[in-house]
């Protein structure tokens, strides 16, 4: 195998999807601990729930580095190299969270076992469906009183429409949590509380019939044997093909806080999760092992510190290899550019890499020439697809404090929308400017950046918009009629694309019924 093929075969690039407080930060800590990236878990800065004041957020961003370096974490595990992409989750939830999911090859879904499937998880799963991304599942917080595991799996199957294949099965819960039975290895792994900050030496009992099990578990051993028989009969068996098609998820039980079960999940990840995948462009599909470098930008992170006004463009390498100082074609502007000092992301104190391969992420310093969705290649003119804008869920009208600055405002908003910070809509019927976002913090970000980068002071007002859809039709006449009749709710976005801004979800539904020849899209390609 060539070096490139070997590097690609070694890599796994994934992200975590979860509802706030399910344990994403805690799992990340433990995963890095296993990756030997942290000596002792407890140093990943999590953003806690509770309101982030605006100034807090700016402070946070000012400490440049923290958010940039934790955006991507690379660590070794079991002879593999794993890339974990951060998915902002609390107030910092944004379109970037969605878009990051288009840049990974698999996802870990973390569920709070006391709560089950929660709203944010449902939304994020919907995004993973765009690419049928393979999903692993970790049922967390087994050290607490949780819901019945069978019921939890039923809920995942029903609500998220994905089959569940238990790989491990919990023995007890809460104070009585004893460990898990690994269905594939036929092993019981015993849990000890209070060891969460370390990698534990665990007691393992081989074989469900092993009399040693009765010694350790007492009467629970018999119950476990009965239960496993039942579980085996009633649940799906793990099927690699179904997993890779995004139709079945292997399920692991444990406690992130107790650092128990996270390694079982990681073992599954490196064994089953796909290696860096081929990606489509407008002309052809690109394989990761092609020699020519290529990649696309899925996120642009601005830095609020006026001293460092640069932005970082996060690029997922699709094929070939990055090396420091190399040149690549910036396809949209048709120029070759040099990657002078791209950032690479390795957790802990491992040294900075001069090379990166397909599946890895690099950070490019961006002084305004890189936009979301941009493609870089070894010279070929092609454009990666599948890095969309997502329909915003929150809307506000933006108004200037000084009306003479309308031009700057519009320019600022269009640029910020190209970066993916926010989306902007201009209704046909009036001169309003409507800002749409996926997460509420984005509104503050936009006002702060307008002020610091465009010298525009703006404020928000509420507006009656519930959702937006991009509108297209193969039938020009039908589209014209729609534009005329629905004029009050038609707008152009930052890229002059036609959108329908619906005051309520019911309006959207009615419009979809009334105009069957018009398509209403939840995402828009760049
Ligand atoms: P998030 O990133 O998904 O939002 O979740 P995070 O890891 O921050 O976890 C949310 C809370 O749940 C934290 O408690 C964390 O300690 C706790 N937690 C995570 N995993 C487990 C687990 O396996 N068992 C139990 N019992 N708790 C768990 P917190 O009180 O909000 O924060 P902290 O003050 O403890 O850090």
TrEMBL record:
Q: One MF term in GO for this entry?
A: translation release factor activity, codon specific
One GO cellular-component annotation of the UniProt record comes to: cytosol
Stretches assigned to coiled coil: none
Name where it mostly resides.
Answer: cytoplasm
Listed under GO biological process in this entry are: regulation of translational termination
Residue span, Tr-type G domain: 9-277
Q: Where in the cell is it found?
A: Cytoplasm
| Record-given protein name | Peptide chain release factor 3
Organism annotation: Marinobacter zhejiangensis
């Amino acid at each position: 195998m060539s070096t490139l093929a070997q590097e690609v075969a070694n890599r796994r690039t994934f992200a975590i999807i979860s509802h706030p407080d399910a344990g994403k930060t805690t799992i990340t800590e433990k995963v890095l601990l296993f990756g030997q990236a942290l000596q002792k878990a407890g140093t990943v800065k999590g953003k806690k729930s509770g309101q982030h004041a605006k100034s807090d957020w700016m402070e946070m961003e000012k400490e440049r580095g923290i958010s940039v370096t934790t955006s991507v974490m690379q660590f070794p595990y079991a002879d593999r190299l794993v890339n974990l992409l951060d998915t902002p989750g609390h107030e910092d939830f944004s379109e970037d969270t969605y878009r990051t999911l288009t840049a990974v090859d698999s996802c870990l879904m973390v569920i709070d076992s006391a709560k089950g499937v929660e709203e944010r998880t449902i939304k994020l799963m919907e995004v993973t469906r765009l690419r049928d991304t393979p999903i692993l599942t970790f049922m967390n917080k087994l050290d607490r009183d949780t819901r019945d595991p069978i019921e939890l799996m039923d809920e995942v199957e029903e609500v998220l429409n994905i089959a569940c294949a238990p790989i491990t099965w919990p023995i007890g819960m809460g104070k009585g949590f004893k460990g898990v039975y690994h269905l594939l290895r036929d092993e019981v792994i015993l849990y000890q509380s209070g060891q969460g900050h370390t990698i534990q030496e665990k007691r393992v009992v081989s074989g469900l019939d092993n009399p040693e099990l009765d010694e350790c578990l007492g009467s629970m051993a018999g119950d476990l044997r009965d239960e496993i028989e039942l579980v085996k009969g009633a649940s799906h068996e793990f099927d690699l093909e179904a997993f890779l098609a995004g139709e079945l998820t292997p399920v692991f039980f444990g406690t992130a806080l107790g650092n128990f079960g996270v390694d079982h999940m990681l073992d599954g990840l490196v064994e089953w999760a796909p290696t860096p995948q081929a990606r489509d462009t407008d002309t052809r599909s690109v394989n990761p092992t092609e020699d020519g470098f290529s990649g696309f930008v899925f996120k642009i992170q601005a830095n609020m510190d006026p001293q460092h006004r640069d932005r970082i463009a996060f690029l997922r390498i699709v094929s070939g290899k990055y090396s420091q100082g190399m040149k690549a074609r910036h396809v949209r502007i048709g120029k070759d550019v040099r990657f002078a000092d791209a950032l690479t992301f390795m957790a802990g104190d491992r040294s900075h890499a001069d090379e990166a391969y397909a599946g890895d992420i690099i950070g490019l310093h961006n002084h305004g020439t890189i936009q979301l969705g941009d493609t870089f290649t070894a010279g070929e003119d092609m454009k990666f697809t599948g890095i969309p804008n997502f329909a915003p869920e929150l809307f506000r009208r933006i108004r200037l404090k000084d009306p003479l600055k309308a031009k700057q405002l519009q320019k600022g908003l269009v640029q910020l929308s190209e970066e993916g910070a926010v989306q902007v809509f201009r209704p046909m019927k009036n001169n309003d400017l409507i800002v749409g976002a996926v997460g509420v913090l984005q509104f503050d970000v936009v006002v702060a950046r307008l002020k610091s980068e465009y010298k525009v002071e703006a404020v928000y007002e509420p507006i009656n918009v519930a959702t937006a859809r991009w509108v297209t039709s193969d039938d020009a006449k039908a589209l014209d009629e729609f534009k005329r009749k629905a004029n009050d709710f038609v707008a152009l976005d930052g890229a002059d694309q036609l959108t329908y801004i619906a005051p309520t979800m019911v309006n959207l539904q009615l419009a979809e019924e009334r105009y069957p020849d018009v398509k209403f899209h939840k995402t828009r390609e760049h």
